Amino acid sequence: MTGSDKVRILAIESSCDETAAAVVVNGREVLSNVISTQIPIHTLYGGVVPEIASRKHIERVNQVVKEALKEANTTLDEIDAIGVTYGPGLVGALLVGLSAAKAIAWAKDIPLVGVHHIEGHICANYIEDIHLEPPFMCLVVSGGHTHLVNVADYGKYEILGRTRDDAAGEAFDKVARAIGLGYPGGPKVEVKAKEGNPHAIKFPVAKVDDGVYDFSFSGLKSAVLNYINGAQMKGETINEADIAASFQQAVIDALVGNAMKAIDEYGTTKFAIAGGVASNKTLSAALEKACQEKGVEFYHPAPILCTDNAAMIGAAAYYEYINGRRDGWDLNAIPNLVLGER
Questions:
Q1: Are residues 277 and 151 in the same domain?
Q2: CA distance 182 to 64
Q3: Same domain, 253 and 211
Q4: Is 173 inside any structural domain?
Q5: How far apart are CA 179 and CA 239, in angstroms?
Q6: 45 near 118, Cβ under 8 Å?
Q7: Rounded to whole angstroms, how far apart are CA atoms 241 and 228?
Q8: What is the DSSP annotation of 192-254?
Q9: 280/257 Cα distance (integer angstroms)
Q10: What pLDDT does 140 receive?
Q11: Residues 259, 164 share a domain
Q12: Does any domain span residue 314?
């Protein structure tokens, strides 16, 4: 400890295509949050190329750590613990951040705390609203994950539902590619959807019989592709804006529908969203409206905290740290790590 009641966490995040470092105090106060994105590089390939992502993380990780410390006006001697994402994610990308965190922790004799990436997304809400405390329900929607989670306490999570196939963000990327919008798909579909009619085309919202809160977006994605192919075979002109708006509406209907069912069953009074797709304003507005109708408090992080960032990892690491978690040098990257597992 630094001798005060303030716990300073240096956090590192490198699970996909953002190299990030941050300094966070007591899980809520962000002193710095540095993000180096690789989006322009991967846009050339229409998606994230794992080998390129790993190489870029190696090039940037030391710089973002230095920038985060400088911006926070903090030295490593004032850091109480190193928080780092160790899963889920791209294994090569994870290993870069993990290796950097281990090196700093070993050199400075600072405790190492491994953080689950999805737990980080959930904890972004603690930064956005310093008064939010468990229990609450959280919908995590990103390029790689779609989870409906009951947050029982700090570090205690019950997964109520998850996607059986494509994550919502993954479906956005694939549909964006199909209608020629490019990568990253989520923001581009959202912009294009504003020009279209969300009720122009009735795309299916999948129901999962043996998982009442589970999601499935593969069939929706296929329905969009079939619609486009059918129109092209008939020589019909497709309306990209109507497709984007109708697809987005189908995703929102699935997410909101399951969330509201869970709120009714569990009687929760607080509901939050997290993850990259949570920055979609149409989705956020639909969830907020549905929550208001049920008298449920709605929480959502700012867009910078929805994307992959290290501040959220610092928030999660703080609660793990004060609960006694310490990891050894054998901590390894786990690309398919399940929320709640250790």
A1: yes
A2: 28
A3: yes
A4: yes
A5: 9
A6: no
A7: 13
A8: HHTTS-TTSS-------TT-TT-B--HHHHHHHHHHHHHHHHTTPPP-HHHHHHHHHHHHHHH
A9: 17
A10: 96
A11: yes
A12: yes
Q: Identify whether 236 is part of a domain.
A: yes
Supply the CATH number for residue 162's domain: 3.30.420.40
- Measured CA to CA in angstroms, residue 163 lies from 53, 170, 209 at distances of 25, 11, 13
Could you tell me the sign of the dihedral formed by the alpha carbons of 118, 154, 340, 14, in that order? positive
Q: Are residues 12 and 156 in the same domain?
A: no
pLDDT given at position 123: 97
Q: Which two tokens stand for residue 88?
A: 């889920």
pLDDT digits (tens, 9 = 90+) for 194-221: 999 999 999 988 788 788 899 999 999 9
> Do 153 and 89 share a structural domain?
no
With contact defined as beta carbons under 8 Å apart, do 99 and 62 qualify?
no
* pLDDT for the residue numbered 4: 57
> One-letter amino acid identity for 319?
Y
Domain range for residue 118? Answer: 8-124+306-322
Tell me the whole-structure pTM to 2 decimals.
0.93
pLDDT, residue 261, reads 96
Whether 115 and 140 share a structural domain: no
pLDDT at 64: 98
Spatial CA neighbour of 135 closest among 269, 275, 233: 269
Q: Are residues 155 and 272 in the same domain?
A: yes
Strands 146-153 and 136-141 come out as: antiparallel
Note the pLDDT of residue 37. 87
Same domain, 57 and 157: no
In total, how many domains does the chain have?
2
Output the six-digit token pair for 243: 């497709």
Domain assignment present for residue 59? The answer is yes
With a cut of 70, which residues of the chain have pLDDT below it? 1-4, 342
Estimate the share of the chain in helix, then strand, then coil, as percent rounded to the nearest 5.
Answer: 45, 20, 35
N-terminal to C-terminal alpha carbon distance within the chain: 25
User: For tokens 């593969």, what's the residue?
Assistant: 218
